[in-house]
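Q: For a teaching session next week I want to show students how multiple molecules come together into a single three-dimensional assembly. I've collected the sequence lines for a complex. Could you give me the predicted structure tokens for the whole thing so I can convert them for display?
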Amino acid sequence: MSLTDLFGSFLLLLAIPFFWGGSLGLLRFPDIYTRLHALTKADNLGLGLVVAGSILISKEWTVGVKLILIWLAVLTASTISCYLIANAARKRKINPWKIP
Amino acid sequence: MNYYLWPALFILISVVVGLVRILRGPTAADRMMAAQLFGTGGVAILLILAQAMQMPSLVDVALIYALLAAITMVVFVRCQWRSHENTGEMEDESH
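A: Of course. Below is the structure for the complete assembly, covering every listed component.
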């Protein structure tokens, strides 16, 4: 097990708390806008860490380029869907959560 | 190589915990957001499995998964969750 494998495994382990944060945010946050915030930021950061760890573990650079493209595709998709859902919720007159 | 499977297992557990929002979510968009959580977590799990099991074709599966998750959300917002139809009352009927 070389040093790059070790560092890649460390990045994979570091991704787990971000996925847990995204799931707990989706469960615990009070309204749809804050849940969108948890879903589209924390999970994509965890996916970025998974992609970085997989690039370090895999030896071919073509696989690395493909992994980066997948991450960019997921980032673009989640940005677009976050905007679409927030815009549709605002048009449906769903009010943002306020501190009671 | 099998120790790479532990992060995949923990990510899978977190995704399954997040799926509780499908049961609880007040609006249909909350349920679709749980589905999108499954999309992102599934891509991460597939990327880890591609390295752990030495199967490079799983990276292509992850790419298809990411694209399908995006298309799912766009179709949901544009076709199902329109605002000029019934606003407010329909939200609990979409179980």
